[in-house]
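Memo to structure team: turn this sequence into structure tokens by end of day. - J.P.
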Amino acid sequence: MKYLLLMLLSLLPVISHAGEAKDLAEDPVLEKRMIGLAENLRCLVCQNESLAGSRSDLANDLRREVREQMKKGLNDQEIIDYLVSRYGDFVLYDPPMKKSTLILWYGPFILLLIGGGMLVYQLRKRKSQIGEADLSAADAQRAAELLNDTPESPNQSKDSQA
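Reply from structure team:
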């Protein structure tokens, strides 16, 4: 029993070796082209991942569909147009400039300007509400004593200069 267990443990590295991952397409040129195209497309499930990097089932299906269209002889733009017509502009990482996507392109800048304007407005409003307090001579003397620093009176400064 001991020898059988030892033999099984020694075979464990051989059994667990998965081997090198192989390209899914028979043609490596086609696979490189598919990966290059899929880098510019968004996974519809993961949203922040490219179609090439995603491991979801839908991404696998879309990559398979892209490969099939490449085998049919479609160029990259025709494949992109097909995916956009089927899934919308969301499938593109770089959406085109259209009326429906203007908010995506200019929205962050508009929000930044609104936020900056609100900040300036609030700071000016706050500045007008908070007045500068003038210290009386007694308050200045007390503050100086608290800081262990006695201020020189005008008479003392004249004496020290002479």
